[in-house]
Write a structure and sequence with these properties.
Blueprint (H helix, E strand, L loop, with lengths): L6 E6 L14 H15 L4 E6 L7 H8 L3 H25 L4 E5 L8 E2 L2 H9 L3 E5 L9 H11 L4 E6 L4 E2 L11 E2 L1 E3 H7 L6 H9 L4 E5 L5 H6 L6 E4 L1
Parallel strand pairs: 1-2, 1-6, 2-5, 3-4, 3-5, 6-10, 9-11
Antiparallel strand pairs: 7-8, 10-11
Helix pairs in contact: 1-3, 2-3, 5-7, 6-7
Length: about 240
């Protein structure tokens, strides 16, 4: 079995963890996602993970709705990502996979600070590294944080694990005739204004020649198929 990608970063939205609930964590969904990550780990793929915090608190949305200062709201959102990261760590370690949560904001009692060399060492030792608290700075999304960390650890690809099976030429929820795109360049993403990730994240991917795979996380085996190079989801390439 030949791996196309030996070191990957998986970006998971916080909303994915709440399943059908309107808020918080659905333990069954967390366990299902953990099983998919373990499947990669069993192939000796070096796995890093970034999880959003939208199931707990969305900085930009809450700031606009409640009048909370934007910087404060973003910091609150970062703490939400730490909660999700700790939940995923616990789930993975209960299944026998050594995991380290590394935070961009220091909180030494519960997780390590993010240090690039230490993160790479964890991956080389076969541990799953979960990067929490975004970039540690307000105004940056967890998409951007995921790409930044992927570039820093020299990942072979970043996988955006979502609830849809790829990138479409228009919103498939609003347009029943939307067509799925199997492969596309970053230049085309810019030109067609496709909402793959926020523009800062897409620019970082493009400038660093980092392939991006968008796939449905809830379809069993999709992560494994992606690292083996099978045609799955949408591949955005330089």
């Amino acid at each position: 079995m030949t791996l196309k990608y030996k070191r990957v970063l998986i970006k998971i939205s916080g909303e994915a963890l709440m399943g059908n609930k309107g808020f918080g964590l659905d333990s069954a969904v967390v366990e299902r996602i953990a099983d998919e990550i373990i499947g990669l780990h069993g192939l000796t793929v070096q796995v890093a993970v970034v999880i959003g915090g939208g199931n707990i608190f969305r900085g930009l949305k809450e700031s606009a709705a409640s009048g909370i200062d934007r910087i404060t709201a973003d910091h609150m959102g970062m703490l939400g990502t730490v909660i999700n990261s700790l939940a995923m760590q616990d789930c993975l370690e209960r299944r026998g996979v050594f995991t380290r949560v590394m935070s961009a904001i220091k909180m030494d009692q519960i997780c390590e600070p993010f240090i690039k060399r230490r993160a790479v060492r964890h991956l080389e030792k076969g541990r799953v590294a979960i990067f929490a608290a975004g970039t540690g700075n307000p105004y940056f999304t967890t998409d951007t944080a995921g790409v930044l960390r992927a570039v820093e650890i020299k990942a072979d690809a970043i996988i955006k694990a979502t609830k849809v099976d790829g990138v479409y030429d228009s919103d498939p929820v609003k347009n029943k005739n939307a067509k799925k795109i199997d492969s596309i360049t970053y230049e085309e993403v810019f030109n067609r204004h496709l909402g793959v990730m926020d523009m800062t994240a897409v620019t970082l991917c493009s400038e660093n020649q980092l392939p991006l795979i968008v796939l449905n996380l809830l379809t069993p085996g999709n992560l494994k198929r992606a690292v083996l190079g099978e045609k799955i989801g949408t591949v955005v390439h330089p």
